[in-house]
Amino acid sequence: MIQKDTLVIAGEEYQSRLLTGTGKYKDFEETRLATEAAGAEIITIAIRRTNIGQNPDEPNVLDVLPPEKYTLLPNTAGCYDVEEAVRTCRLARELLDGHNLVKLEVLGDEKTLFPDTIQTLKAAEILVKDNFNVMVYTNDDPLIAKQLEEIGCVAVMPLAAPIGSGLGIRNPYNILEIIENANVPILVDAGVGTASDAAVAMELGCDGILMNTAIAAAQDPILMASAMKNAVIAGRQAFKAGRMPRKRYASASSPIDGTFF
Q1: Which of 26, 69, 103, 229 is catalytic?
Q2: What is the CATH number of the domain that holds 129?
Q3: Residues of the chain predicted below pLDDT 70
Q4: Distance between CA 22 and CA 35 in Å, rounded?
């Protein structure tokens, strides 16, 4: 009998372990098709860059990705200080009628988009005290990841490589260390470039992956979204199954003891 294996975030269960972004597509129709192909249930929206109702005369992404169908994850992309990030989360909560699940990211560098961990810790403390359920983007430092968990973040999201780089998992040992010491979901955020990267992350034991550029910047975003969905599923299954031990030399597939020749 196959055991239930769902992703649980802030007390809510999700069948899909692939979370997707809504930016960088050519139009909202491509956004919709890619999201559906990915099988995503949680979609992240950059409040400072995407209209969810704050600009009534412009196209609204919620018209193609309705809150009745998806769990919205407003994020603070483009924020570089605590005040800006906190204000953005509060705006999202107001626009979405009290919705309190947010993705926090406080950036420290415009070139690499690496997180400012000091500012991130400060913003996380404020938001958790303000009753937000905070999923937080951070670097792959196990100590910082643990501090964010202890503050009360509902999920920690270490980068695999710089945002939008597509370089894949650059430091699997740090990611593994974070996973092994966590009591909240760990989701790789940033750096995945193709399906094999997603599978590797899941095989390490990540609870899920959030991606945008890897799908949106592909030559065929819809097909890549489907590939990522399958890679996340395969990687999770491989992790649960437990891989064979690595060996320096091959061994016979059948034992030879007791044979007649």
Answers
A1: 103
A2: 3.20.20.70
A3: 1-3, 251-261
A4: 8
